[in-house]
Amino acid sequence: MLNRLEMLRIFVAAAETGSFKQAAIQLGISPQAVTRAIQELERLQGEMLFHRNTRKIRITEFGEQLASRAGDSLRQVDTLFAPQGSRQSSEFEGVVHLTAPKALGRIGMLPVLADIAMQHPGLRIDLNLSDVPAHVIDERIDIGVRFGLLRDSRFVARKVAKYAFHVVGTPALIDRVGMPGQVRDLESLPTTIMHDVTTGRAWPWLFKGGQHFTPTRPAFTSNDSEAERDAVLSGLAFGQIAGFLADTHIAAGELVPVLQAFAPEPWDLCVYRPQRGPVPKRVRVVFDGLVKALADKA
What we know:
The chain is α/β, with parallel strands linked by helices. It has helices at residues 2-17, 20-27, 31-45, 61-81, 87-90, 102-119, 171-177, 225-233, 243-251, 281-297, and strands at residues 50-52, 57-59, 94-100, 123-129, 143-147, 155-163, 165-169, 192-194, 205-206, 212-213, 220-222, 239-242, 256-258, 267-274.
């Protein structure tokens, strides 16, 4: 029985980390021991638990269902041996995999996730920050945060806030080059652009009524929104910056919004999770906490 329990514990660690190597490090055993345990469990179950290739592993649908049941069972077993005061928190033990845009994740989510994790010892956060949308289903992400509404029936999505996008510059920049009165005036002014890393092309600036503007000779180019914000704060150029990055600097007088009559509609911010069976308590507590916190911050 002990061996089978340990076999399940190894399997759940591999499922949660998405890596035999990381599971071995987490459990303090060899990668070979992880491989042998998974192979033996597959033999006992009569089903493949992971798809494997030379670069990565990916859990099968059967493996995902087994991992959910096994994880719940292991937590119940661990609860039997836990001190009375720690039993409630053990219900939330395990890894929650999240994905979010880089700047929003660092500024808006990290403090919230840290607070939730401290309230629930044993809860482990795995946050993937990228401006490239993750393949949530394929990569086994538990929770995602993104701009724009999700209409995919495979997801449970909650719209939590709206964020404006501002064209801004510093007072010193405006004194030096003037303030644009029309969108076309930007063509003769120093500007920034962000690159879409999936296409290599520049993201266009968006304006009211579907109008677009793409700088042809930008003074600053980046694939990181915080770097773009910092370039604008230095007085180098005008930029179109998301509200969560610009609002505090606008309030402090460090940035001045321009072309406000042409501002685009604010973008929706959504928190979402895949619909794949029962939702573990650890995922639900993080999902609900993010929904509340991001709505409160808006």
